[in-house]
Design goal:
Length: 304
């Protein structure tokens, strides 16, 4: 057994698929399958139940997973520290981004970072903010972007966007000409929401319940552009962040301020407090903080 065997095992456990794990690790599926079989033979236990194309951890696999995470984490910290000692300005960063955040805020940041550090590679994982937070907490990601606040106190955070949610309705909707809309006025409306793995899904439902009603959800999606198109097709109403609303077609939609309550949308980067960060990850955090502070401070002052 070597560290690669454990890394392959953890990737299969994370993705629940040999094929996806092989693609993620840039190796062939037979290689990863052979490695897992070898690991099972060496340990004398079955690690995965194969169910069609999907796999699930056995009880023994779950025990090995916890130990393997600790071993791989220690190995990665050791490797990172040695690289820093040798002043090798190279590295690899695993960053989690919710889909709407990645397209709206980070293309320029990634481009500028690559110019400054051409030998640092970035691997992006697109998932809902809840999944991103879980993966940063588990060590599967180095850094994540989530809708704050984070759950628990294991993370360092950097807040870079403070906005709120707006209401989207069809131009023929009864509320379309309103100056602002209280949340309670949406009690009978069909909602188009983000999926359950998105923080906004839970947050919107929680605010509706506090306002005295359970929202009637007719569609769920992981894509903000599909959600807005559903509203434009008069299939329901939606609540989307201001940053997204600025890019929408105001002729096909009405974008209205939501009040009573205002639902905040605060974005931040997170990373584990207790985990060693490589040179590349530290530089990414520092670089991004400076760039986003400058960029969004300027944007907000222009809008005011």
């Amino acid at each position: 057994m070597d560290i690669r065997h454990l890394q392959y095992f953890l990737e299969v456990a994370r993705l629940r698929s040999f094929t996806k794990a092989a693609q993620s690790m840039f190796i062939t599926q037979p290689t990863i399958s052979k490695t897992i079989r070898s690991l099972e033979e060496e340990l004398g236990v079955i690690l995965f139940n194969r169910i069609g194309k999907k796999v699930e951890l056995t009880d023994a696999g779950k025990v090995i997973e916890l130990q393997a995470q600790a071993i791989v984490k220690s190995f990665q910290s050791l490797s990172s520290e040695l690289s820093d000692l040798m002043n090798l300005k190279k590295g690899h960063i695993r960053i989690g981004l919710p889909p709407m955040v990645g397209s709206s805020f980070f293309p320029r940041v990634i481009g500028e970072f690559h110019k400054a550090f051409p030998d640092v590679t970035i691997q992006l994982f697109e998932d809902g903010a809840k999944k991103v937070e879980q993966d940063v907490g588990a060590g599967a990601l180095d850094i994540g972007v989530i809708v704050l606040p984070a759950v628990g106190d294991m993370f360092e955070t950097f807040l870079f966007v403070e906005e709120k949610l707006n209401l989207l309705v069809h131009p023929t909707h009864a509320l379309a000409e309103s100056e602002e809309v209280p949340l309670s006025a949406l009690a009978e409306e069909p909602f188009v929401l983000f999926r359950e793995d998105f923080t906004l899904h839970d947050r919107i439902i929680a605010e509706c319940v506090r306002a005295g009603f359970q929202p009637h959800v007719v569609y769920e999606s992981s894509q903000w552009d599909l959600i807005s198109e559903m509203v434009a097709a008069n299939l329901g109403i939606a609540l989307l962040p201001e940053a997204i609303c600025r890019d929408l077609d105001s002729e096909r939609l009405r974008i209205l301020p939501l009040v009573d309550p205002v639902i905040p949308w605060h974005l931040g980067m997170i990373w584990r407090k207790d985990r060693y960060l490589s040179f590349a990850a530290r530089e990414w955090i520092s670089f991004t903080q400076e760039l986003l502070r400058t960029e969004y401070a300027g944007k907000y002052s222009r809008e005011k």
